[in-house]
Amino acid sequence: SQITTLINHKDKPKRSDKTLQAIQRVGQAVNLAVGRFVTVGEAIANENHELKEEMSVACIEARRAGETIAQLTDVASLDHPESDSHITIFTDKTGVVKAARLLLSSVTKVLVLADRIVIKQIITSRNKVLATMEQLEKVSSFQEFVQIFSQFGNEMVEFAHLTGDRQNDLKDEKKKARMAASRAVLEKCTMMLLTASKTCLRHPDCESARINKNGVFHRMRLALEQVIEIVTDSRPNGENEMAPISIYSGIKEFKNKVEGLRENLYFLSKENLSTMLEVILEHTEDFTDSAYTSHEHREHILELSKQAKMELEQLVSVWMQAQNQKTKDLMEDLEVAILKTCQCMNELKREVHSAATSLAADLLKYHTDHMVLKALKITGVEGNLEAVAEYTCKLSEQKEQLVEMCRLLRHVSGTEPLEITCIHAEDTFQVTGPQIISAAETLALHPSSKIAKENLEVFCEAWESQLSDMSMLLREINDVFEGRRGEKRVYLSLPRPGKHNANLKALKPVKLDTEEQAKIAKLGLELHLLTSDVDSETEKWEDQENEIVQHGQGMSSMAYSMYLFTRGEGLLKTTQDLFHQAEIFATEGTKLASALHAFSDQVHDDDKPLLLLEAEKLISMCKQLQVTAKAPVQGKSPTFTKVDACILKTRNVMTLLCQLLPLCCKLLRKNKAGNGCLKPAPLWREERIRTGTNAHASERRAETFGIKTLENHVTNMTFLESK
C-alpha cells in the first residue's frame, strides 16, 4: 500500500513542503516496517537451518531496498533552491521504482520460505500423530493404552494449534471451510477413539467392537490426509479435485452467460449454452428421482425443466437471427427472450430450494425426539439382540433420509462454504450411523459393560450434535436465499467445553430452561436487530476487504450466534459455549479498536477526536465483557445472571459498532471526494504488528477451534486409571 502511494504520485514539477514531508514520512514508514518484518524473518532463519542461507539473503535484500527507499524520499538529500516554496521531488524516480521492485520480490521470497517452514511443521506434526495412532491400534494392555493415549492427546493439541493458525490464514473460503470440516472430524473422533479403544480392550474377542474401533481410526486418517491436501494444495496421485456442481452454481453461471449476450453476441456458442442447461437439468433429477420429494414439487420441477428448454430454444433462434442482422426489433426480441429465460431459471431455483428446505424442516422436526437412539440404548442394556436388530434397521432408514436431505440441501446452499458444510454433514451421517449400530451390538452382547454403554453414548451424542447443527445450517441456507445474511463465515468446530470430556460425569454443561429463555428473549431480539443493522452498514462499504469491515462482520456473526442461543438454537449449546463465544467476541472488538486507532492516524478531520473517543469506549466495553465472561460462577441463578450480563454487554458493544461503522465510512468517502480528511499516505499499523507478535495471540485464535476440548482429553486421562 505504501509503495503504491510512492510510485503513483503525480509527476508535477513542483511540490509544496507539506506534500514533500508527507512523502518522506511514507518512505520512513516503509523502511521501519521492512525492518520489523526482516527481524521476524531472521529469527525464523535462525530456528530453521535448512533454509537459513536463503532466508538470510532475502532479508538482507529487503533491508537494503527499504533503506534505499528511505534515502530517496529524504527531504534533506534533495537539492532545491531555498527561495522557491515549491520544490522538485524525486530527482531519481527510477531508483525508487527499482528499489520497490527489489523490496517486493525479496519480501515475497521471505513469505514463501516462511510458508514452506509452516507447511513442514504441519506435515511433521501429522506424521507424529499417525505414528502414535499406529501404536494405539496395536496395544493390548490397558496400562500401555493410557500411557500412549496421553502422548497422542498432546500431539493432537499441537496439531490443532498449527492447523488452527493455518485455517485462520487461509484466504480461500472454500479451503477454509474444508479445513474446518476436517478439524471438526478430528476433534470429535478423538473422544470416539478413546471410548472405542477402551471397549475393544475390555472385550477383545468382540467383532462388533473391533469394527467400531477400526471405523474411527479410518475416519481420522482420512481427515488427517485431507488437512495435508489443503495445506500443500495437492491431491494424491496427482488427481485434480472435481467438486460436484450444484444446481445453484449451475444456474448462476448459466444466467451470467445468457445476460452476457446483451454485450456480445459472439462470445460463446449455442452448443455451449445448451450443454450448460442439460447439466443443470440432469442435477434436477436428484430431486425428481428422490423418494422423499413430494409429488407436487416433483411435478413443478419437471414442468419448469420443460419450460426452460423451450425458452432456450426461443432465445437461440432470436440470437442466431441477431448475429446475422442487428435490427432494433430483433434486439428487442432478444432482450425479451433473455428476460424470459432468466425468469424461468429463477423459478426453477426457487422450486428446488423449496423442495429441499421443506424436506429438511420436516425430517429435522420428525427426528428431534431421538426415539431410535433412546430405544437402542435401552434394548442394548437389556441385552435384547432381536430388538437391537429391529432398531438398527430403523436407524439405517433414518440415515438414508438424512443423507438424501444433505445431498439436496447442497444443491441449494447458495455459497461454496455452505456446500462444503452440507458435504461434511452427509459424510458424518454416512459414517456415524454404522458406528452407532456396531456400538449398540457390542452393548447388547455385553449388557453389563459400563464402557460399552459409555461408548454407545458418545456415538449417539455425535449423531444428536450433527442433527442440531443441521437446524443451524438450514437457517443459514434460508438466510442466504432470502438475502438476509450474505456469505457468512461457517464455524464448524466451535468449542464445546465439557461436551467430549473423558470423565463424562465430571462436568454437566448448563442449558437455559424455557423460563430463562423467555426472560432473556427481549434482550436477544435487540441483539438480532443490531446484527442486521451492522450487516447493513458493512454492505455500504465499497472495499469489503477493509480490516474494519472484516472485524465488524466477524463480530456481527458471533453476536448472531449468541442471539440464536437465547432462542435455544444454533451451535452454542451450553452456557459455557456462550461465555467462550463472548470472550472471542470481546477479543475481536479489541482488534477492531486497534484497526480504528491505525485509521485515526490517517485522519485530518474534525471527526478525529470523536473517532478516538469511540475507539477508547470500545476497548473499555470489551474489557468489561471479557471480565464478565471469565468470572467463575456456581449455581443456577448466578449462571443465568452471568448469561444476562454477557448478552447485555454484547448488545452495548454492537450498539457502539452501529455508530462507528458509518462514521469511518463517511471519513473514507470524504477522502475519495477529495476533501482531504486523510493524510496523503497511511502509516504502517504498528499496533496491528504488536498484536500479531503477541505470544498469546495464537493461543486465543486456537481456542476458537476446539483445542481446549482436546486438552481436556489429555488432562482427564487420570480418570481412566481409576476406572
From TrEMBL:
Q: Which Pfam families match?
A: Vinculin
GO biological process, alphabetically ordered:
cell adhesion; Rho protein signal transduction
Q: What is its main location?
A: cytoplasm
Q: Which domain of life is it from?
A: Eukaryota
Annotated GO CC locations: cytoplasm
Keywords for this entry? Cytoplasm
Any one Gene Ontology MF annotation carried by this entry is:
actin filament binding
Subcellular localization is given as: Cytoplasm
Indicate the family of this protein: Belongs to the vinculin/alpha-catenin family.
Q: What is this protein called?
A: Alpha-catulin
What gene is behind this protein?
Ctnnal1
